[in-house]
Specification:
Strand content: 5-15%
Helix content: 25-40%
CATH architecture: Alpha-Beta Barrel
CATH topology: TIM Barrel
Strand order of the largest sheet: 1-2-3-4-6
CATH superfamily: Luciferase-like domain
Length: 203
């Protein structure tokens, strides 16, 4: 176990020496990753998410990563018909766990970068350096339509994400000290959590 600090290296390593990180994906959405009608399918209720996070933390899992959904798929299974918003979900789990990283997921085209920066810096204080940021730049067309936002072409999405990251951490654009000191620590490959970044904030 690495010493808890806000160093870039320790944040990217999720405070442990495990080369392979193991976590849970999509627990904030009903049915999780299984489109099924079985009665015992995952509920994604807050009590269930809280219980799961505590079990995962005690078992030594490295992270929990949510899916940002604005509506479900409907149909017989109503896959992801119920979901919890990811940043508030992460804050709740961070306050109830001790060691694992909990991610929030943002659709960059739907979130103003300064609002996202302040939300994640606040979450980072609550989680004492254990918050992770999952930046998604494309998604289901129907959900973007709910916001009146048109999706960019594939490559343009990632150009926009880079601009969004710089914008959210640029001191001259900040209106609060906690935002102006937000520092993006790492931008990973597209295949790994779309874009995976960690934020550090100071009081």
């Amino acid at each position: 176990m690495l010493a808890r600090s806000a160093s870039m290296q320790n944040r990217i390593a999720m405070y442990n020496g495990n080369v392979l990180k193991i976590g849970l994906f999509g627990a904030n959405c009903s049915s999780g990753r299984s489109a099924t009608k079985v009665p015992e399918r995952w509920s994604a209720s807050w009590p269930d998410c809280l219980t799961l996070a505590k079990l995962a933390d005690d078992a030594g899992l490295d992270f929990m990563l949510p899916i940002a959904r604005w509506k479900g798929y409907g149909g017989d299974t109503d896959f992801h018909g119920c979901s919890l918003e990811t940043i508030t979900w992460a804050v709740g789990l961070l306050s109830a766990t001790k060691r694992m990283t909990v991610f929030g997921t943002v659709h960059a085209p739907l979130f103003h970068p300064l609002i996202a920066a302040k939300e994640f810096v606040t979450a980072d204080h609550i989680g004492e350096g254990r918050v992770g940021v999952n930046i998604v730049v494309g998604w289901n067309e129907g959900e973007f339509d709910m916001f009146g936002v048109k999706q960019r072409e594939h490559d343009a999405r990632y150009d926009y994400a880079q601009e969004w990251i710089v914008w959210s951490s640029w001191p001259g654009r900040a209106t609060a000290r906690s935002i102006s000191t937000a520092i993006i620590c790492s931008s990973r490959t597209r295949a790994l959590f779309q874009s995976h970044t960690a934020i550090r904030g100071h009081c």
